[in-house]
From TrEMBL:
SUPFAM superfamilies: Phospholipase C/P1 nuclease. The lineage of its organism: Bacteria, Pseudomonadati, Pseudomonadota, Betaproteobacteria, Burkholderiales. One of its GO terms (biological process) is DNA catabolic process. One of its GO terms (molecular function) is metal ion binding. Residues 1-31 form the signal peptide. This is S1/P1 Nuclease.
């Protein structure tokens, strides 16, 4: 057990209190939401080689400290649920008076490029390398999802990395590859990636724009009358299967930096670029998203979930089952 897992163990005794606080947090705090991350993992599983599947199953089998999810099931109950672990680890550190700067790994979940003159290098704090001898899981804050994906992918393929560190690398990779494909985890309009803009969809309640891209549009991929809350497996079944050519293309583009720039472009064009003029309400400005906006967002989300899963599989195949 490494220092990060010992730190997690120390916090676990107080987790029941933290979970009470987490229950009232905005769902927008969870990139993609649990469901979206599980969908990415399930898609990845379909595209992983048998050797990579076996290696990851073995390395995740002895997870010393899972967390209870919102549905009461532990994060280590299945491969797809492990994709949510990084959010629960981060949220286990929340509490009264705690700021983002106090939370280990808080900034690792995104690479928010300002849409007015920002750059990926700025969003990633200059791509600072790990200090010599430091583990990826214990790396400094702040950092960004792009840098952490690159670091953990190297660790996973390294013969000198410990089993504990490789297990953490797997869980972080499962999560951060998903994160960086969510457009509002790669763009910012001085609104914390859309968390500072409230919006409605189909006359529903106002929620942060980020939440709609995390959750609402993921559900929309497979929602049907009478069942607005599909399971992760139902979302996967509703996704368009990638062609062999797409799989090859996506897996042979192993650059998280380009993935982030793709997401940034989507956010500029569709998440921010198509926003209507906001309406004034007693509680502040609200963006009433049109059907056209929601339909395009659903298409974007569906594509990004598949891309993330295929690329995650590529990362695992390269690290654990190279040709």
């Amino acid at each position: 057990m490494n220092a990060l897992e010992r730190r997690a163990c120390a916090r676990f005794a107080a987790l029941s209190l933290v979970c009470c606080a987490c229950a009232v947090l905005s769902p927008s705090a969870q990139a993609w939401g649990d469901k979206g991350h599980q969908v990415v993992a399930l898609v990845a599983w379909e595209h992983m080689s048998p050797k990579a599947r076996d290696a990851i199953t073995a390395m995740l089998a002895n997870d010393p400290k899972p967390y209870p999810m919102r549905d009461g099931v532990m994060t280590n109950a299945s491969f797809d649920r492990q994709a949510t672990w990084a959010d629960y680890y981060r949220d286990s550190q929340r509490g009264p008076g705690v700021t983002p700067d106090d939370i280990h790994s808080y900034y690792w979940h995104f690479a928010d490029i300002e849409i007015h003159g920002g750059s990926l290098e700025q969003a990633c704090y200059g791509f600072q390398p790990l200090p010599p001898g430091d583990l990826g899981s214990e790396g400094p804050d702040p950092d960004c999802a792009v840098n952490k994906i690159e670091q953990f992918a190297l660790e996973l393929s390294s013969p000198s990395a410990s089993a504990d560190e490789k297990r953490l690398a797997i869980k972080y990779l499962m999560h951060f590859v998903g994160d960086i494909h969510q457009p509002l985890h790669a763009a910012d309009d001085v609104d914390h990636g859309g968390n500072g803009k409230n919006a409605t969809v189909n006359g529903g309640s106002a929620q942060p724009l980020h939440h709609h891209w995390d959750v609402t549009f993921v559900d929309a991929v497979a929602a049907r009358p009478g069942k607005p809350n599909p399971s992760p497996q139902e979302v996967v079944a509703a996704l368009k299967k990638p062609t062999a050519q797409q799989v090859t293309q996506w897996q042979h583009d192993p650059s998280p930096r380009r993935w982030a720039l793709e997401s940034y472009a989507l956010a500029r064009r569709d998440a921010y670029g198509d926003l209507p003029v906001p309406s004034s309400t007693p509680s502040g400005k609200v963006y009433k998203l049109s059907k056209a906006y929601a339909d395009q967002a659903k298409r974007d989300v569906a594509t990004q979930l598949v891309k993330a899963g295929v690329r995650l599989a590529g990362v695992f195949n390269k690290a654990l089952a190279p040709d």
